[in-house]
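> run fold Pseudouridine synthase
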Amino acid sequence: MKFTIKLPTTLKKMTVAELLTTEWLVPKKQRHLLRTKQHVLINDDVAKFSDLVSGGDQITVLFDTTDFPDKKLVFGDKQLGESLILYEDDHLVIVNKPEYMKTHGNGTSEIALQNHIAAACGQIVYVVHRLDFETSGAVLFAKNPFVLPILDQMLHDRQIHRTYQALCAGQFTQDKLTINQAIGTDRHDKKRRVVVARGGQRAVTHIHVLKRFAGDTLVQCQLETGRTHQIRVHLSSLGHAILGDTVYRGHKASRLMLHAKHLELSQPFTKEKIRVTAVSESFERVMRKIATD
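> ok
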């Protein structure tokens, strides 16, 4: 496995070790393999970790097939996968997940979004984050096991920004608010999550009202954390359950009215700013009906 990356011209001079550790966020295990096997090249010359790199240099990293665990994935519908891709480069792909489709299967034989995108890319893709089965919108996949832990770290460090839209019941008295309430499992139903006073996971959601209707409100939600059902639980806890949310007693709608509208990040190696917008026809159709009722 070989990856060749041209460093952006704006990159300051630094050592190979600094490049891999600080700039690229390469995990310790992978750095160890690259160092001991001398598998880093600068402009096609074998490099030491103490060597300096500069903007414009061409960096090549090499991995043996045994350096990463073997993974198998059944390919899905190539045409469907191609129709969902919003952005793709050598290392990552961002796609527009339809509502009522799993991000990934529970077993090797179950076909889900991941399988369709793998077919479209002609290779295995790796899940960086997921959306609930009922939720539509932008989802990020890694295209190789080298970049996967880097994207995982970026997500943990909040360098990947996800913006959602939700249509909720009722009127908000504030235009902006932050919900900082821990979330835990409902002891009466393990499939549900609830706001808890103790023992839950920290969960923070930033809410911005976009539009008010007669009985409902369209809001924008930005996640500071990424807990299961976070937006759904937080909005429901305020008495503003998302329309179509049968789990959290939302008002009736033809679908769950939660959509991952935007996804933003810097490309891990080139530092190119990436921002995609995912559009859902079914979400927009419900919005038009609400606006005219």
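The CA atoms of residues 77 and 116 lie 5 Å apart.
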